[in-house]
TrEMBL record:
Lineage top rank: taxon: Archaea
Membrane spanning stretches: 629-647
Protein name per its UniProtKB record: S-layer protein
Keywords: Membrane, Transmembrane, Transmembrane helix
Protein species of origin: Caldiarchaeum subterraneum
Length: 654
């Protein structure tokens, strides 16, 4: 009975195909792929919203329209996929006309079941279509069934391609007792798909301090790309030299968001390692000269380093290293070797802290070439360069006149300089060099040698109480042949033109008796061209001089050509003996620098027993002063007396 049913079915199908072929309608399945035909992919269990592309060809002689495809399970079998739209059949449509000799792609959007196993699954593909050129609506829709195979792939593996150790951020081998280190693992994403949210857990074997370690890379990683995960741990003294196996669990999501878990075992090598370090103490180098930088090389590792060489590269172009490469040879574990590197610093470099790169190249016990770089720092200073010094033979010049000054230029460098050129010029407008050579050219100057330039410097009156600057520009070539220019400033104080003199100083009276008071009066005049400050007049005397009240009179400022009066007095002691005595009148004043100057005059007075009054000075003659009004009154009185005498004589004669 079953055989009869199959026979009848075959006859029906044959009649249908005969009918389609009679009408010239034949469709053939050409290809089936995950993704697009031009970019095929591999679907794995759990993928969702995956494209399944079925390529069909019209091998008939008439165009086909309304092409519809449906995936059906084989008899007594299940499908490994389901429609992306839950509860709907697995159907796809071709919206365009399929002409004879052309191909079209039917795209299914499916979910791969999570519990399905990777493998090949057979299914039926039922195609429904009709002839596009027919105007009849009563023709049946043509159908045909093809057998297809759905390939479900196993999840692609994440491959560990290399492991390495990092110590202090530098890639190097580790050995027993290395301490903190980072295990860097290079992984390659599957070539079939891009991945994201990669997580990895590793379990270190015995001797490595730390429990399960974790790291993640959450960004999208293109298919076949390499990325890095890092795991910090401690290499203890108990770690043996050799190969160690690590267990790893890797989880990631593919492009469809499917979570994939995989377990791997990978090997990590631990070797005895050399550890070369470079140390540099605080050092200073003078700019514009040669210097030596001392470096200490040490092998703190557990294996020797061979063919060790040192190259120093300054980070500034103004610093030159005179030794290209220094060969150190073999550094055994625990060895220390000090090396000296000669450098030259250009004079244009600024005073600051500079750095250099110390590159170490060597070979390990396996003849592998290795290199490391260290940063060292040193100070660039000027204190070590003595240069030139300039000085003057005296500190002061005088306003309103010219002063002879010797300018002395001294080479304080510790070496002979050549092509020396000295140019002298004042920086103050009110000061000028009126005599002497202001330029000098010398072939050389030895260390400590001095050169004297005699000058006559004129300062105007307005320069009084100021500081004038004379600049000496010294140009020369140092021991390295580098041209150097130094500007040396010499300061000269300009003393003001102040000339305080006494005028009309008198004693009144000049002849006194014991116990009487003597007045001293007069004027001070400034015959200079600058202001005199803090002008004061005082009396100084020996017995029988006796101060009476304030013996000092403060005048204050006295301008040029100004006359200022003063009055002082003193008393003659009661026990004074007759005779001639002196009293000193002293004036003191200051200039703008606070310097004190003094001038004095001496007056003579006589102690007598009479009552005669006269005034005299030793330093200048006493001048008589007559009042015109008094003279006129005296004349009137005399004329009146003469008139009275004449009248009396006439009366007597009468």
């Amino acid at each position: 009975m079953k055989a009869l049913v199959l026979l009848l079915s075959a006859m029906v199908l044959a009649s249908w195909f005969s009918l389609f072929e009679a009408y010239g309608l034949t469709i053939q399945v050409v290809d089936l792929s995950w993704g697009s035909p031009s970019n095929p992919e591999k679907a794995i269990p759990g993928d969702s919203n995956v494209e399944l592309s079925v390529v069909v060809a019209n091998i008939g002689n008439k165009p086909v329209c309304s092409l519809e495809a449906e995936i059906l399970p084989k008899l007594n079998r299940s499908l490994p996929i389901a429609s992306w739209e839950t509860g709907k059949p697995l159907k796809a449509f071709l919206q365009t006309q399929l002409n004879p000799g052309t191909m079209g792609s039917l795209v299914f959007r499916v979910n791969v079941l999570e519990d399905v196993r990777p493998g090949r699954y057979e299914a039926d593909l039922r195609l429904s279509f009709r002839e596009c050129t027919s105007t009849s609506d009563v023709l049946p829709v043509a159908q045909m069934v093809s057998s297809i195979v759905l390939q479900i792939y196993p999840p692609p593996s994440m491959r560990i391609i290399r492991t390495t150790w990092l110590v202090d951020g530098i890639e190097r081998s580790v050995g027993p007792g290395s301490g903190p280190a980072v295990l860097r693992i290079y992984l390659e994403a599957p070539v079939e798909t891009s991945v994201s949210n990669v997580e990895m857990r590793i379990s270190p074997p015995r001797g490595f301090t730390g429990k399960t370690l974790y790291d993640a890379y959450l960004e999208r990683i293109p298919a076949g790309s390499v990325f890095v995960l890092e795991f910090p741990l401690v290499v203890s003294d108990d770690v043996r030299v050799g190969v160690h196996s690590f267990d790893a669990e890797i989880m990631y999501r593919n492009k469809y968001g499917t979570m994939v878990r995989m377990v791997q075992v990978f090997d990590v090598e631990v070797l005895g390692r050399e550890e070369i370090v470079v140390e540099s103490a605080a050092q200073s180098v003078a700019k514009g000269s040669y210097g030596v930088l001392k470096l200490l090389l040490k092998n703190t590792g557990s294996a020797p380093a061979y063919n060790v060489e040192l190259v120093l590269r300054p980070d500034d172009f103004r610093i030159s290293v005179l030794d290209d490469k220094l060969s150190v040879g073999i550094l055994q574990p625990g060895d220390r070797r000090e090396v000296s590197v000669n450098v030259f610093v250009d004079r244009s470099a600024e005073t600051s802290v500079y750095t250099a790169t110390a590159a170490i190249e060597y070979r390990d016990g396996y003849a592998n070439h290795k290199s490391k770089e260290f940063r060292i720092a040193f100070n660039l200073v000027e204190e070590f360069r003595r240069g030139f010094k300039a000085a003057a033979s005296q500190r002061y010049i005088y306003a309103g006149s010219s002063t002879s000054v010797e300018l002395i230029v001294i080479n304080e460098n510790s070496y002979t300089v050549r092509e020396v050129r000295i140019t002298v010029s004042p920086d103050t407008p009110s000061v000028a060099v009126v005599e002497g050579e202001t330029k000098a050219v010398l072939d050389s100057m030895r260390a400590g040698q001095s050169y004297v330039m005699p000058l006559k410097i004129l300062a105007t009156s307005q320069a009084g109480d100021s500081v004038a600057t004379i600049t000496a520009l010294v140009e020369y070539r140092d021991q390295a042949g580098v041209k150097v220019a130094e500007s040396l400033a010499v300061s000269l104080a300009v003393r003001a033109d102040i000339d305080i003199r006494f005028k009309g100083v008198q004693l009144s009276p000049s002849r006194v008796r014991a116990g009487e008071t003597v007045d001293v009066a007069g004027d001070v005049v400034n015959e200079g061209s600058n202001i005199a400050r803090a002008v004061a007049v005082e009396l100084i005397g020996a017995p029988p001089y006796e101060a009476l009240g304030e013996s000092r009179s403060v005048v204050g400022l006295v301008n040029p050509s100004q006359v200022s009066a003063f009055t002082l007095n003193f008393r003659v002691q009661n026990n004074a003996q007759p005779g001639k005595y002196n009293v000193v009148v002293k004036v003191s004043f200051r200039n703008g620098f606070g310097e004190v100057f003094q001038r004095e005059t001496v007056l003579e007075y006589e102690v007598v027993q009479g009552n005669q009054l006269s005034a005299t000075t030793v330093s200048q003659p006493v001048q008589q002063r007559f009042d015109p009004i008094l003279m006129a009154l005296v004349a009137v009185v005399v004329l009146a007396l003469v008139g009275l005498a004449v009248l009396r004589r006439r009366r007597k004669q009468e």
